[in-house]
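user: can you give me the structure for this one chain? tokens are fine.
assistant: on it. calling the predictor now.
[tool input]
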Amino acid sequence: MPKKRRRTTSVAKKLSAIETQISSLKKTEQKILQEEQKVEQKEQEIKAEEQKIEKVLFKLGEWEFKRKHLLELIKGVAGSFLGVGLGTTLLNKEIIAAKLSWWNVSGILLFIFAISWLLIYKNEKQYVKKEGLAVVWRKLILLYGISLVIEFLALWLFASLPPEMATLVKVLVIGSYAAMAGAVSFSLI
């Protein structure tokens, strides 16, 4: 008879240990379910934010102007204004333009494009993988166009437009160096 009790006690201990493990597994399972719910909730929040950013503001034929385009435009304009202000403070563009040859101005322009292209490429790598290098070129041209417009606007507003067209072009290219640096920097934010 004592052997049966030992077996029963041994079985009871094993059952108790198994029930403890099952209880522990249920608690772990509950924690995992709670974490999954938190992750799903975060995913929903991210999707909602993405939809908000991807919201189409208006269409021009096949092209859609989305909220992300507006944000990019705002960043480019803000950065260009900052760059123009900084460039005006640091450079006397009209004197430099008078001294530089067209080769130097062309070199400055190439340098602006090369550095800006690399910065944009680095920042937009995930889109480049999906859509190709056209993403970088479009953004580069957009930001350079914004920079030129802002530079011209600043020259006009401060009554600093040079009288000669050749000097104006040189001043715009030289000034666009700082404006483009600001525009690209702000677009990376």
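assistant: here you go. The chain is about 85% helix and 5% strand. The chain has two domains: 1-53, 56-187.
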